[in-house]
Amino acid sequence: MRRFFSSLRFRLILLVLFAIIPAGGVVLYSGLEQRQLAASHAKEEALRLARLISNNHSQLIEGASHFLYVLAQLSPVRNCEPASCAPLFADLLKQYPWFLNIGAAYPDGNIFASAVPMPRPINIADRSYFQLALENRRFAVGDYQIGRIVGKPVINFGYPVLDDAGKVKAIVFVAMDLTWLNHLSASANLPPGSSITVVNHNSTILARHPEPEKWVGKNVKELPIIKTILSQREGMIEAVGIEGVQRLHAFTPFGGTGQAGNMYISMGIPAQVAFAQVDKILNQNLIALAFIGFLALLAVWVGGDLLILRRLNPLVNTAMRLAAGYLSARTKIGY
What we know:
Elements: H1 2-5, H2 8-73, H3 75-78, H4 82-94, E1 99-105, E2 111-114, H5 128-136, E3 140-146, E4 153-162, E5 168-177, H6 179-186, E6 195-200, E7 205-209, H7 212-215, H8 224-232, E8 235-240, E9 246-253, E10 263-270, H9 271-274, H10 276-323
Antiparallel strand pairs: 1-2, 1-5, 3-4, 4-5, 6-7, 6-10, 8-9, 9-10
Helix pairs in contact: 2-10
C-alpha cells in the first residue's frame, strides 16, 4: 500500500483530483447562489400574492364602510323602526353574498332589527366593533368571533347612526363571512404544499388553507412564526409554519394598514418546492462532474499505464539491474 501511495500512478491521480476539486467547488458555489436567488424570488412572489389578496379584501372592507354609511342615512334606520328595517335588511342581504347578516342595535346594545331572524333578544354591547363605533362615532372593524345570530365565524363592521345633534341613535352592522377567505385561498393557484393564513392581533387564525376546519378559530400565539408576523408586520422569512412544515413565508397587514382590525396574511411556500428546480440542476451538474471525474481517473489509470508506466518500468528495471552489477542489462526500448 505504501508503494502505491509513492508511485507515479498515484501522483497522476492526485493531479486529476486537484483539477476536478476546484470545478466541484464552483458547481457547489453556483448551486448555493441559485438557491438564494430562488428563495428570494419565491418570497417576493409570495409577498406579491399576499398583497394582492390583502388589497382585494381591503376593497371589500371599503365597500362595507360605504354600504353602512348609506344604510345609516335611510329614514327607517335613522328612526329605528324595527318593522321596516328587518325586511329591508333581509332584501339587501340577498344582494351581498359575502355578508352573513345585516342588523342594527340601540346604543345600549340591544338589537332591534336583523336580516337573519333572531331566536331570542340579543345584546351586542360587549362586541369590540360596537364599542368602537359607539365611542369613536365612525366606521369600526371588530375581532374574530362566532356570530350570536348566525352561529358562524365572522368579522363584524359597525357604523354609528347619528341624529341632527350628532348623538348616536343606533349602530348598524354587517357580519362578513370568513369562509370566502378559505375559498379564495384554495383558488389562488399556489405551488403544491403552499399555505395561506390570516391571523388577527390576538394570534387567532381567521382563515386558513389548507384544512380551514382544523385551524380557524385557534389561538397560536406561542408559535415563533406568529410572533415574528405580529412584531414585524410585513416581511419575508424562512421558518417552520403552524403545522410544523419548513416554508418560505411572506406576510403583510391584511386589508390595508390600520384598516382591518390589525389582521395579517401570511403566504407560505414549502422550501423543497421553491428549491426543487435549483436542486435538480445542482444534482445534474454534480452527477455530470462525477462522471467526468470518473472518466478522467479511468483515463489516468489506463492511459498512464499505456503511455507512461509501460515505458518507464523498463528504464527503472534496467537501472536497478545496472545498480546490481549487471552491466550488460539493456532496456530493449527502440530509439
